[in-house]
Each structure stands twice: as C-alpha cells, then as structure tokens.
Amino acid sequence: MSLRDAAHTTRGGAASRPRYALVDVVRGVAIVGVVFYHLFWDLSYFWLIPFDVSTHPIWVAFARVLLGSFVFLAGVGLVLAHGRQIRWKAFWRRFAVIGGAAALVSIGTYLAFPETFVYFGVLHAIAVFSLLGLPFLRIPFWLTAFVGLLVIIAGVVFSAPVFTEKVWSWIGFWPVPPPTNDLVPVFPWLGVTLLGIALTRYLIDSGRLERLGNWAPTTGPWHGLSMIGRWTLVIYLIHQLALLAIIYPLATFVFDETTSVNAFAGTCQAGCLNTGSEAAFCTSYCACALEEVSQRDLWEAVEAQEPTPEQSNAVSEVILQCTREDGDLAPPLP
C-alpha cells in the first residue's frame, strides 16, 4: 500500500494521516532560524552589537524568508492534515491552540511593549490563513496557485494610507507599517499560504508526495531538526523568554561606553536613512559624528532628554562640522 493510499485508509473508518519527516525538518530549520534572528534582535535592542537588526537590509530579508517559510508551511500542513475532506474536530482543536498562543503573545507583548505590542503577528496570521485556506482544499491546485499569486501581487503593488491605521492594518496595503513588533497582514502573506496549499495538492495529485514521505532521517542533524520541528509552537512561545532571561542581565551588567557607542551608531544610521539620505552618506556622516562626540566627550549632551543650551550648541557644532565634511544636508543627531 502506498503512502498516498494510506493517507485515505481507515482502521475503523477514520482517516489516518502519515507524518512527513521532511516537513518536520523544514519546520525545524525555520524555528532554529527564528531563535537565531531573535538572539541578534535582542542584542541589537540592548545595543550590545553596533547595528539595528530591525532596519539592517540583510537581517530584514532574513526575517522575511523565515516568515515566508512559516506561512508557506501553514498551507502545506493544512493539506496534509485534511486532504480534501476537512476533519472539523481536529481543525477547530488546532485553531484554538494556535489562537490561544497568539493571544498569549498579544498579552505578553502588550505588558512589555504597550506602544508596539503584537496584535496580528505570525501566530494570528497562521490561524486566520488556515481558516481562509479551507475552501482551497477542494478546488484545482492551479487555481489556488493563481489566486495566491494575485494576493501577493495585490499586496505588493497596491497601498492606501487608510490601512496604516491599526484597525485596518492586519489586511495589508499600508504604505508605512504602524508601530508594532510583528505584523503579518493578509495581503500579501495569505498568498504564500495558498502557494503552499497548491504545491502540496500538486505533489499529491502527481504521486510525488509518496517519494518525499518515504524519507525518514534516523541519525545526525536531520533527525535532530525533525524532532525540533515537532515542537515549533512551544519553542516559539518560550524562546524569547529564555533569551531575555540571559541577555537582559548581561546588558545591565556590561552597559558602558561601548554600548553607548553602539546605540549612537545604530540610532544615527537609522535616523539618517529615514530622512531619505543615501546609505553611503549616512555611514560617512555617522562615523564623523561619532568621532566628534567621542573626542569632545559629548555623551551627556547626546543622551540628555532635555539638553542645556550649552549642550545643544555643542551638538549643533558637531552637525555642522560633519555636514561640511560630507557636503550634504545632515539629520539631527540622536
């Protein structure tokens, strides 16, 4: 009996669903990537490293790849769990688990970061996308893929200021994202889930899924990743607490001029780029400003919430000095 047949065989009438080790391995790789990303995000948040992970192009791209992998796997898992016959009891049980986990993330981030709490992050999105993906389990895979591409294209090319408001931002289409630590809108990310549904349906219909299902790692790193991939939700919920339990005391202990330099460099670069200046100019300008602040020992002036007139004048001199050297309009220092 083939795996394809086994997926629809019953012992006592109930469908039996095989587990695909390859999918668990991919999940394992993705969650390891998330832990790695959040490790450096936390380090940059506490200025233990001299760049801002949330704005650095390479890290932003890495985060989007990780996000794409999870929402794609949501579509894959939906097909593998249900095929063309939706198992409603199992679906609602999993929906409740993911929805409850999403609520915990919202509550936890609201308590920690009330201004930027997560109200529609990756877990919220996976729950909603799973629900919206159910009708696509019964239509041709090519039509699902077509709709998925349309959703992605619409999310990329269309924007309107009204969607920047939090109440609408979960849909997508915002020209500038609202302040939040994680936002996974329906457009374009639902389209990625639909592509996961379409690909898995194609593999089943073409008989290729059986060959993938026969692969089973027994030793080595693939086996470890497969085991990790079975616990992605638990790892996702607890990994940040574990990281912060280590990094926060470390940041408090080592906070010194080095962390001040890192904070200054990262904030200066991000603020400069936000003015529309070229990256090369921002790098040169911030290097100049950092050197001048260090040489003149203006750290108190730079970090003061309400600088004195003398401190403001000293900072203004640094801005003018670095503007003259770089020949462009400089932004204010952080």
Word description of this protein:
This protein has 334 residues and is mainly alpha-helical. It folds into two domains: 3-251, no CATH class; 257-326. Helix content is 69%, strand content 0%. It contains 15 helices and no strands. The protein has helices spanning 3-6, 21-45, 57-82, 88-112, 122-133, 141-157, 166-169, 186-206, 209-213, 220-229, 232-254, 257-274, 279-296, 299-303, 309-326. The longest helix is centred in the first third of the chain and has 26 residues, at 57-82. Residues 1-15 have low confidence and may be disordered.
Descriptive tags:
elongated; mainly alpha; disordered N terminus; 334 residues
Work out the oligomeric state of the chains in this entry: single chain
Distance between the termini: 67 Å
- What is the count of DSSP helices, taking H or I runs of 4+ residues? 15
**What is the mean pLDDT?**
84
Q: Main beta sheet, described?
A: none
Classify the secondary structure makeup into a structural class. mainly alpha
Describe the structure concisely for a colleague.
It comes from Devosia pacifica. This protein has 334 residues and is mainly alpha-helical.
Summarize the SSE layout with pairings.
Layout: H1 3-6, H2 21-45, H3 57-82, H4 88-112, H5 122-133, H6 141-157, H7 166-169, H8 186-206, H9 209-213, H10 220-229, H11 232-254, H12 257-274, H13 279-296, H14 299-303, H15 309-326
Helix pairs in contact: 2-3, 2-10, 2-11, 3-5, 3-8, 4-5, 5-8, 6-8, 12-13, 13-15
